[in-house]
Structure formats: structure tokens, C-alpha cells
Amino acid sequence: MTPAQRHTGLDEALLNQRKALYEDARRQNPRRWSQNTRNWNRVHTVHLNPDHAETQNKPTQEIANQAQIAA
């Protein structure tokens, strides 16, 4: 998925098409699939830097404590 597709709202249609394609392939050849297919549900919150986003939600003192422990 590209950022442009996400911002213009095309991501939901593309995900639905991919889901249908995989379900059809699984129906046609069930022995090919040992487990479930990929999760094609839309992710509502996307972070470019997930590690950085996690630290922004923590109190400053907790981040400082983690830095001291790592050092």
C-alpha cells in the first residue's frame, strides 16, 4: 500500500480485492494453504517510526530511566 493510496482512501478497496483474490485461490486449491491467509483488514493507525511513537506516549522520567538502564 502506498501513502497516496492510503490518503486518497483507495486502500480499503485494494485490501478488499486482495482478500477476495486470496479467498478464491484458497477455494480453488485448498491443499496449497496449510494455514489461514494473510490478515487483509485495514490498520487504522499507522506510524512511520513505531519505536519513536511508543516513546512519545511515555512520561519523560520513564524514558530517562530506560536510558540510564541501557547505559
From TrEMBL:
Bias (Polar residues) ranges: 31-42, 56-71
Region span, Disordered: 22-71
Protein name: Transposase
Lineage, opening ranks: Bacteria, Pseudomonadati, Pseudomonadota, Gammaproteobacteria, Methylococcales
